[in-house]
Design brief:
By secondary structure, the protein is an all-alpha fold. The protein folds into 2 domains: 87 residues, Four Helix Bundle (Hemerythrin (Met), subunit A); 40 residues. 76% of the residues lie in helices and 0% in strands. It contains 7 helices and no strands.
């Protein structure tokens, strides 16, 4: 019972903050709501006992990508660009996408009525005590068989980060 309450809490926070992220006009407010959405998604991953994805979600997306987004928002003057863009046709596209998504959800819920058991197209969950230690197994494989590609990727990311700093530096 508590698992369902925690899941619905995180799902509700994620849906609410995602909706607020899309509807806010201020880019900083949208970034804050995106951070909230990513944290709620990380909470769902933690509840599913996917610890590595939980930590990666927080460190990579919330910690890294969102800091980059906030810096870009601060460096680029979005107020000037916002006044130049015309949003006349986007309402119809948004309505069409909303109707398509609602139809997909309706078909999924209608087809899940006929599934025996839980009523959704999900298999029965394995008890948490019988699950393998996924983070330890992933770390073992990552630092044993894939150590060289992992280090090459980290060097490439470091070079890209230094290049971004050099390109963003103002010339005087």
């Amino acid at each position: 019972m508590l698992d369902k309450v925690i899941f619905f809490f995180f799902a509700g926070v994620a849906i609410l903050s995602a909706g607020l992220m899309v509807t806010r006009r201020n880019a900083i407010h949208s970034a804050v709501f995106l951070i909230t959405t990513l944290l709620a998604t990380a909470g769902i991953f933690l509840q599913l006992r996917a610890e590595f994805i939980f930590i990666a979600q927080i460190i990579l997306y919330v910690g890294g990508i969102m800091v980059l987004f906030v810096f870009v928002i601060m460096l680029v003057r979005l107020d000037v660009a916002l006044h130049q863009i015309q949003f006349s046709r986007q309402k119809w596209v948004a309505l069409l996408v909303t109707l398509a998504l609602a139809a997909e959800v309706g078909v999924m819920l209608w087809s899940s009525r006929n599934v025996p058991g839980q009523g959704f197209l999900l298999p029965n969950a394995v008890p948490a005590g019988k699950l393998p230690p996924n983070t330890e197994a992933l770390a073992g494989r990552l630092f044993d068989a894939y150590l060289l590609p992992f280090e090459i990727a980290s060097v490439l990311l470091l070079v890209a980060m230094v290049g971004a700093v050099v390109m963003a530096k103002k010339r005087t």
